[in-house]
Structures are given as structure tokens and as C-alpha cells.
Design goal:
The chain is 33% helix and 22% strand. It starts with 8 loop residues before the first strand and ends in a 6-residue tail after the last strand. It is an alpha/beta fold and 850 residues long. The longest helix is centred in the middle third of the chain and has 18 residues, at 288-305. It binds adenosine-5'-diphosphate and zinc ion (ZN). Zinc ion binds at residues 549, 551-552, 570, 572-573, 575.
């Protein structure tokens, strides 16, 4: 819908899952402020909600009395730039969710104002003869209202919490009728607001040199002298007091005397992690492939700037260490030079400190770093400064694609194949890469997707000419000589090692020798074991029983936390119990821990290489804020010989002294029932292998596997991305899977298995009914690929006490995304609201398991 900016009424989308915008009257006083993008307070049913004005209109359905907007929350610029209104509307349509849910995701958390119902006691409890709960409530309110009349009320929710029970609406109504209770609709303050600090300055027109005569106390004189000596004759109160030895009473006195003025200045809360001294940008000459790639991106920036071409998406396919980041940096510089702004998406900030630091080194305080571990205050400040144009670059994980920048000229998506770009919970279930392409399209900007191992989707889009391919097949030449070689990859067949009885633990003799050689040469090693904990399975040798999670349909993982007794933990819900010494089922003392997690590999390393310094990086060692950065910094400084970890160690790290990468078990994840399992495995192996030999010294990679003939292994061995993807695509084409078809996943869950199963069946019937309409106009070949698969129990049938079923709608590309989501939305509406405690989650373009 095109957004109109004129009209007497406002179209408002409340920030909740409601289906469409609502029309409100605009009081004259608010007319100039209730513009598209502004946040407003609106009455909605019996509540008051925060919403966003998405347009103005003169149309009102006949006979409808419009309610007026209660207030406008943005008194300066509207919270959202209009570009984001159009983008969020597209997202709501494409991802089959409400516009309000997307707008909520685009606004910083904790800034909305909520309506609450507040209870006031208007008489004493003695007058109440009904339900004893009413008496309890009145007593409670008495404690909060002093004399019981017109004191401070208590929000309904808090009253319910304190009483430990819900307050039935009928009871509240009776209390009100009896004249004992007043219920008022009030609004809460936002949880997050700007932070200010007090500053002092000498008033204009005052001559500080006159101070000794007119001011009596030495403290007063010192304070005035301190301020007089500072820039602009001003200082923060904290600094001024520290420097002069004066107290806040002195300040107050000087303010009263008219010498000094106090005022508030906003302080920005910035996360510390990235303020660390950034390296100075080195002057380097681009090598020819980089040059060629950059020239094309720059040409597109120019074309788009002078209007000859609207938008262009590039796929920068460069092997690990080919200098992609350098290309991003230069393209961003050209963008800023042209007066526009840029967004850089990275998979996970904590894992890419080096990349972030390089951007900070080049663009300094133009860059706002957004990440998931920021406090709400830090996030709010960064967001507002982006909105005000004080930052011109936003760098962050998927949510940064919604950064409130105006005039965006370039969007970079680094490691575009990463699954973490897809959001699952809560809605909107969007893919940040695809949203980036759309945002660039709407903004007339250039989008650069970069990867050493592009997703099959992007590869095919490049082949079809939808994206422009920029190949960088070689590593950056080292010290001006020949291109740094890609590492040599070797496969260790674990089955064979076992046969010849050479395999004792998780590390083969070959890998051990390679590690020893690095220790001798003072080089570094990265080891990937994509499973945390000590052992994935504890099983009884006598009866075969394996302990499972009481809430999830998975086996428990054995952990040996240092200094504590061994534990069994669920990796889905966090359930923890002491590891038993005897079998829960048969009581025999014959339990075996099978397989190896990172802890066990760590133990094996300690036993085999007592002199080696090992750092372990997995979810268990990185739960504290900043833990990733500390581990990576220590490793970068050479404070350890071996970095061992889960897939966290595979991402964008660039350590010149790493010459060996070992994958302890390349088969983890390879055989999952997911059509992307092979692609994921190949990407992980290629990425982690790419950490080796990035500088002068050549690198070596060992892949330990029981499936040496698996395509992911065979092609990783030859660094053959194209070969792999060409081998992987035909099956997908045959089955009509992405990128040759579209998928919508529908997840049903709830606490009772039979209820969820029934819900799934009923819902799926509604969807199936809508197939004939989607079939219209399809070729015979395409028609075959329009299918409803399911419902079936999910691969992990129960998580956190919730039973899970799913249905997948598979459609050929000839069916438009719009037709698809319309059918799904209609089925959802026709199926009615799910039974109590059950949920239906619609996931367009799902990634990962169902
Ligand atoms: P990628 O992002 O493709 O993995 P990077 O941009 O991180 O590659 O480059 C790898 C390394 O090579 C980095 O240390 C980078 O500073 C360096 N580098 C990049 N381009 C050049 C160049 N043209 N000349 C010299 N060194 C370069
Ligand atoms: Zn569990």
C-alpha cells in the first residue's frame, strides 16, 4: 500500500500481533507530530498501546466513530525513517506475520509505553462481604494507599503477583459496583531512556577573575578557577568536584549566587569491548582481483547515485583470506564519500572482533557497533544516534539490517551463508540476508553479499543473473610474492584407524604428530570438535539404558565441570542432574561414556601434550560477557598453543601463526535429516580449514571422518566449492527444494501430545484445501512440486515439555511468495485460534531442522 502523508486521520499499527492498521482521529494539537514513522499512544479495546503511524488518510468506513490518538511519543523526528516503513511492511507480507511484530523488532527494546490498569481502594475492607479474595485485595491496596483514599494505586499485574493468583474480572467489577475500588487506565514510563550527566559552567557575563574578591570560601574560589581554566569554561560536575576539592553544597551555593550554571548533558552508553585501541589502517595496494571487484561495486554505487541504475546485488565469492573485508572497507569509504550511509552485517559480533576492529580503525566514530549482549541502555543510545545521523555506519548481526539510517547507499552481508542470519523466535522469522537485498532494492542502494562458501540460494541467484558474481579465487599474495597457498587438506579415515588398532582416543596418530610438530616449531593449532561437554552419551553396558531429559526427547550429555561432581545436562532446555554411578534402570555399576565432547578432547590433549597451553572455546566457557573476546585476544597474543572449540572457532578468524587446523569429527551434523546437511558440513569444513596458513607459513588441515567418500569431505579436500555445489544441486532440483522451490514450515507445539497432533491435522487440512487455487496455471512439471508434507512428529519430538509436530508446504518458484503466504494465512485463520497452551509458528524460508 503506498503511504500517504496527507489526510485528516492517522493509520496506526499497534506494536502487537494484530492483522492490520487502524484508523484514528488526530487532535489538532498533535497534527504536526503524528506523521508517518512517529510512535503514538492509542486506545485499543480496553487497553492503551504504543503504535506507529504508517500513513495518513481521509477515508473512514461509514458510520464508524474514530477514537483519537492519545499522545505522540516522538516529539522531534519520527522514530522510524519512512524507508523502514516500506521495508517492514514488505517483511510482514513476505514472512506472514503482523506489521506490528516487525515494527517492534525495528524499534529498540524497552522504549515503548504500555497501558496498565491501576487499582485504587476507595473504601475500607470492612464494607466487603463477598469473595475473601476481594478482602485480601483491599487489604493489600490499603498497604499501598495509606489512608485508603486517592493514594498511590497498584497496577493490576503487581496486585496479582503479590496475591499469587489471578483476579477474576467479575470480582473486580463487583468491588467497583460496591464503591470500594476504582480502576484507572494509566501508562507506564518506558523502561529505557536517555542517560544524562550534570555539567557546570560559568555564567555568561561573569568575570571569573573577580572571584577572589566576591567569593568568600576558598572552595568556591577553587571551583570557579577550575571552571575558568577549562574549555568553554565548563566541566562535568564530577570532574569539577574532583579537580577543585569542592562539594556539591559549594556548587549549589554558586548556582544561587548566579556565578555558575548547572545543566544536563546526554552521556552515551557504549559497550567497552570495541573501544579498545583500534589498529591504524595500513596503506595497502589492492591485488588485481580485489581491484576488479571493487571497480564493479564502485561503478554500481556511482550509477545508483546518479540515477542510471537503481540497485544491484553482488555476490563476492572469495576464498578464505582473499581480501574480501578489504573490498568492503573501500566500497564503504566510497559510499560515505558520496554522502550516503552504510550497513555491515556480520554473523555474530562476539566471534568477529577482528572484523569489527578493522571497520572501527577505518571509520572511527562513524561506526555504531550493535550486538546482542549490549544492555538495553547501550542499544537505545546507539539506535538514537544512528537515527539522528551521528553515526553513518551500523555494523552488527541480523537485527542491524533494520538500523534506522537514512540515505543508505551500501549494505554488506559478510559470510552470507551463515544460518544465524535467520531469526526463528520470536516473529518476524526473517532472513537478514534477504531483507538486506530488499532494503537495498527499496533504497536504491548497492548490496554486497560475501562468502568463501556461498549458500546454494545465492550461488543460483548469481548463475541466473539476479546477482552479479565477483570471483576472488586466490588468497592475497604474501609480501608481494606469489599468492598465499590454500592449506593442504588431508583426510584421516577413523574406521580404518580403528581396524589397524591405532586409534586410542579422539585424536588419531596422524593428527597428534601434526600437533607435536606445531608445538616444536612454536606455531599454533585450531581444533574443531562440534560438540560440547565431556561425552554426548552415557549408556549402561548391562541393559543399554541411556538417560534422557525429562522435558525433551533427547539424551543427556555428560559434563565434568572443574571442581564439581560430574553432571548430565540437556542441551535443549538446560536441565541438569548429578551423573549417576549406577544405571537408573537396572542398578548395575557398568556405565560407559561414549563419544567425545570438547571437554574430553581437552583432557586428552592435556594427557598427550602436557607442555601445551590449550584454550577451550564453547558455550560453557563463553557464558560471561566479553569471554569470547578475551579468549581470542589471548590466543592472538600467542598465550596459547591450541585453540579448541565448537563451530565458534570456524568463523572469520585471522591468526597468522595458525598453521594447523584439525577437525576431530567431521561427521557431526553430516547425516542429519535435512536437505542442507551436506552443504552445512562442507561450509563448516571449508571455513575452519580457511583459518590455517593465512600468512607466510603454509597451512595444513586434517579432517577425521568415518565417511571419507561423503561429497562434503571429498570436495573440501580439493577446495572445490563449485564442484561441491554442482554435485549437491541436482538432488534439490529433483525434489523441488530451495533454491529450486519455496518452503514454508509450520510448527505446532503444546504440552499435550494428542491435542497438538489434532491441531496439526486440522490446520493441515485447511491448508490442503487451498492447494487447488495455487495449482492454477502451473505447468505439469511444476504442479508435481506443489505439496503439503505432513503433519509429522518433529525430528526432536519434544522440547521443554512441548510436543512438536510440523507440516511443510513446498511450492515451485512459479507460485509467488504472495500467493503462498496468503494461502497459509487463510488456512491459519480458518483453523481458528489454537487450543489453550498450543502455538502455531509459521516460518517462511525455514533453515535448519523441522
Ligand atoms: P577475507 O575477508 O577474504 O578472509 P581479509 O580481507 O581478511 O580476507 O584479508 C586477509 C588478510 O590479508 C588480512 O590480514 C588483510 O589485512 C590482508 N590483505 C587484504 N588485502 C590485501 C592486499 N591487497 N595486500 C596485502 N594484504 C592484504
Ligand atoms: Zn531438556
Amino acid at each position: 500500500m503506498p503511504l500517504s502523508t496527507t489526510g485528516a486521520h492517522a493509520l496506526v499499527v499497534p506494536l502487537s500481533p494484530v492483522p492490520q492498521p487502524y484508523t484514528y482521529a488526530v487532535p489538532d494539537a498533535l497534527d504536526a507530530l503524528a506523521v508517518p514513522g512517529a510512535r503514538v499512544l492509542v486506545p485499543f479495546g480496553r487497553r492503551t498501546l504504543t503504535g506507529v503511524v504508517v500513513g495518513r488518510t481521509d477515508e473512514v468506513a461509514e458510520g464508524v466513530a474514530l477514537k483519537p490518538i492519545a499522545d505522540v511519543l516522538d516529539t522531534e523526528a519520527p522514530a522510524l525513517p519512512t524507508a523502514l516503513l516500506r521495508l517492514t511492511e514488505w517483511m510482514a507480507n513476505y514472512y506472514a506475520c503482523s506489521w506490528g511484530e516487525v515494527l517492534r523488532a525495528a524499534l529498540p527494546a524497552g522504549t515503548d509505553v504500555e497501558g496498565v490498569r491501576v487499582l485504587y481502594r476507595t473504601d475500607t475492607p470492612a464494607a466487603w462481604r463477598g469473595n475473601p479474595l476481594g478482602r485480601d485485595l483491599l487489604v493489600l491496596l490499603g498497604q499501598h494507599t495509606g489512608n485508603g483514599r486517592n493514594g498511590h494505586g497498584l497496577p493490576l499485574k503487581e496486585a496479582e503477583e503479590e496475591l499469587g493468583t489471578k483476579l477474576p474480572a467479575a470480582l473486580l467489577a463487583d468491588l467497583r459496583t460496591a464503591g470500594l475500588l476504582r480502576i484507572a487506565e494509566e501508562t507506564t514510563d518506558p523502561r529505557v531512556r536517555a542517560k544524562t550527566a550534570r555539567w557546570l559552567r560559568i555564567r555568561t557575563g561573569i568575570d571569573p577573575s573577580a572571584a577572589p574578591d566576591e567569593l568568600r570560601g576558598l572552595r568556591q574560589q577553587m571551583l570557579v578557577a577550575t571552571l575558568a581554566a577549562s574549555t568553554d569554561r565548563s566541566l562535568s560536575q564530577a570532574d569539577a568536584l574532583a579537580a577543585s576539592g569542592a562539594s556539591s553544597q559549594t556548587v549549589q551555593r554558586l548556582v544561587e549566587l548566579g556565578w555558575v550554571e548547572a545543566y544536563d548533558v546526554e552521556v552515551e552508553r557504549r559497550p567497552e569491548a570495541f573501544d579498545a585501541a583500534a589498529p591504524t589502517p595500513q596503506r595497502i595496494a589492492l591485488h588485481p582481483a580485489q581491484r576488479a571487484a571493487l571497480d564493479q561495486v564502485n561503478a554500481a554505487l556511482v550509477a545508483q547515485h546518479n540515477g542510471t541504475k537503481k540497485t544491484e546485488t553482488f555476490l563476492l565469492h572469495g576464498v578464505t583470506g582473499s581480501g574480501k573485508t578489504e573490498v568492503y572497507l573501500r566500497a564503504l569509504k566510497a559510499t560515505l564519500d558520496a554522502g550516503r550511509t552504510g550497513i555491515v552485517l556480520v554473523p555474530e559480533i562476539a566471534l568477529t572482533p577482528q572484523t569489527v576492529r578493522r571497520f572501527r580503525a577505518h571509520f572511527g566514530d562513524d561506526v555504531a557497533v550493535l550486538h546482542s549482549r549490549m544492555s538495553p541502555g547501550e542499544r537505545y543510545d546507539a539506535w538514537r544516534h544512528l537515527r539522528a545521523g551521528r553515526y553513518r555506519v551500523a555494523i552488527g548481526p541480523r537485527s542491524a539490517v533494520l538500523a534506522p539510517l537514512e540515505n543508505v547507499g551500501l549494505i554488506v552481508v559478510d559470510e552470507e551463508h551463515e544460518a544465524s542470519y535467520k531469526q526463528f523466535d520470536p516473529a518476524p522469522r526473517y532472513h537478514a540476508r534477504d531483507v538486506a537485498v530488499m532494503r537495498a532494492h527499496l533504497a536504491g542502494a548497492v548490496c554486497v553479499l560475501g562468502s568463501a562458501t556461498p549458500s546454494a540460494e545465492s550461488f543460483v541467484n548469481a548463475k541466473r543473473g539476479k546477482y552479479t558474481l565477483l570471483p576472488m579465487p586466490e588468497r592475497v599474495p604474501v609480501s608481494g610474492r606469489t599468492a598465499a597457498r590454500l592449506p593442504e587438506v588431508k583426510v584421516v579415515d577413523l574406521a580404518r584407524e580403528q581396524e589397524v588398532r591405532r586409534l586410542r582416543g579422539a585424536l588419531s596418530v596422524q593428527l597428534q604428530e601434526a600437533i607435536q610438530a606445531r608445538l616444536d616449531r612454536k606455531e599454533q593449532t585450531i581444533l574443531l570438535q562440534n560438540r560440547r561437554g565431556y561425552a554426548p552419551i552415557l549408556t549402561c553396558n548391562a541393559c543399554g539404558h541411556t538417560p534422557e531429559c525429562p522435558s525433551c526427547a533427547v539424551t543427556l550429555t555428560l559434563h565434568r565441570p572443574p571442581g564439581l561432581r560430574p553432571q548430565l545436562r540437556c542441551h535443549y532446555c538446560g536441565f541438569t542432574r548429578a551423573a549417576p554411578s549406577a544405571c537408573d534402570n537396572c542398578g548395575q555399576h557398568d556405565l560407559a561414556d561414549l563419544g567425545a565432547g570438547t571437554q574430553r578432547v581437552e583432557e586428552e590433549l592435556a594427557a598427550t601434550f602436557p607442555e601445551a597451553r590449550v584454550l577451550r572455546m564453547d558455550l560453557d566457557t563463553t557464558s560471561k560477557k566479553d569471554a569470547h573476546r578475551k579468549l581470542l585476544t589471548a590466543f592472538g597474543r600467542g598465550e596459547a598453543d591450541i585453540l579448541l572449540g565448537t563451530q565458534m572457532v570456524a568463523k572469520g578468524l585471522d591468526f597468522p601463526r595458525v598453521t594447523l587446523v584439525g577437525v576431530v569429527n567431521a561427521d557431526t551434523g553430516m547425516l542429519l535429516p535435512d536437505f542442507r546437511a551436506a552443504e552445512r558440513t562442507f561450509q563448516l569444513l571449508a571455513q575452519v580449514g580457511g583459518r590455517a596458513g593465512r600468512a607466510e607459513r603454509p597451512g595444513e588441515v586434517f579432517l577425521q571422518t568415518r565417511n571419507p567418500d561423503h561429497p562434503a569431505i571429498r570436495f573440501a579436500l580439493a577446495h572445490d566449492y563449485d564442484g561441491f555445489i554442482r554435485a549437491d544441486l541436482p538432488d534439490r532440483r529433483f525434489l523441488g527444494y530451495p533454491p529450486f522451490g519455496r518452503l514454508v514450515g509450520i510448527e505446532f507445539k503444546g504440552p499435550n501430545e494428542a491435542t497438538v497432533e489434532k491441531l496439526a491435522a486440522r490446520w493441515t487440512t485447511q491448508l490442503t484445501k487451498r492447494l487447488p487455487r495455487l495449482l492454477k496455471g502451473l505447468s505439469e512439471h511444476d504442479a508435481q512440486h506443489l505439496q503439503v508434507l505432513g503433519p509429522t512428529a518433529a525430528f526432536i519430538g519434544r522440547v521443554k515439555k512441548q510436543y512438536r509436530f510440523h507440516t511443510i508446504l513446498k511450492a515451485p518458484l512459479a507460485v509467488s511468495p504472495y500467493a503462498l503466504t496468503t494461502a497459509v494465512a487463510e488456512a491459519d485463520a480458518a483453523a481458528g485460534s489454537p487450543p489453550k497452551g498450543c502455538r502455531v509458528n509459521i516460518d517462511v524460508d525455514p533453515v535448519g531442522l523441522y
